[in-house]
Amino acid sequence: MKKIGRRLILSLAFAITLLAVCACRAGKSVEESIILEGFTLSGTTTLITWTDGSELIESLDLITLLISEDETAPPAGSQVRYTIGREIMESDPPQARVLSMEILDESTGPVKTSIDTALRVRSHQPEKTILLDVRTSEEYDSGHLPGAISFPLSRLRSELPPYDKNATLILYCKSGVRTIEAAQLLDKAGFKIVLNAGGILSYEGEMEG
């Protein structure tokens, strides 16, 4: 009986040790990962919309997420939650490896962003991005963002822009009021990637016109 009792105690001690090791590894795994949510622009390029507060990515707005070969990249316009490794590789935009992902919404709708971030999106994928100025033609002529196309909100209410529904459309106006309606109109028309960059009142960069 004493031998059986001793074996039982040893077995319990071994099980407790094993559980402790597993818990330690799990904790370490959590510490070595970062959680973020992002809006898929194209392929693996993502506009970050939320993070878990990690200082490694707190200053980032765009990131390229490297997905394993057996995974399928989420569709453009979807909102996805990612768990990524803590190694952020320098590139433009920075890169990180995906540990796991969960598609939250395959059709997110318009996403609010800033003028500066919107211009970085266009710089990263110029062939897929269209910058629309939804102010009046007079406002556009008085000064607009470089490369912007004039498409006033009044015109948009009765006519859709002749672009591919998979193109990335970036909208801006003077204060950010008109872009809200413009973004809703484009979303209802079936455009998958609509970025509302708001107004240019605080923009201090280069202008044309």
Q: What general form does the structure show?
A: globular
- Give the overall average pLDDT: 88
* CATH-scheme architecture of the largest domain: 3-Layer(aba) Sandwich
Structural class designation: alpha/beta
In what order do the strands lie side by side in the largest sheet?
1-2-3-5-4
CATH top level of the largest domain?
Alpha Beta
Helicity, in percent? Answer: 25-40%
Element order, helices and strands? HEEEEEEHEHEHEHE
Tell me the domain tally: 3
**CATH fold annotation of the largest domain:** Oxidized Rhodanese, domain 1
Number of helices: 5
Polypeptide structure, described:
There is one protein chain. 26% of the residues are buried. About 6% of the residues have low confidence. The chain is an alpha/beta fold and 209 residues long. A five-stranded mixed β-barrel has the order 1-2-3-5-4. It is globular, with a radius of gyration of 24 Å.
Short key terms for the protein model shown above:
single chain, five-stranded mixed beta barrel, 10 strands, 209 residues, 30% strand, alpha/beta, Oxidized Rhodanese, domain 1
Topology summary:
Elements: H1 2-31, E1 33-42, E2 45-51, E3 62-66, E4 79-85, E5 95-105, E6 111-112, H2 115-124, E7 129-133, H3 137-141, E8 149-150, H4 153-156, E9 168-173, H5 178-188, E10 193-199
Parallel strand pairs: 3-5, 6-10, 7-8, 7-9, 9-10
Antiparallel strand pairs: 1-2, 1-4, 2-3, 4-5
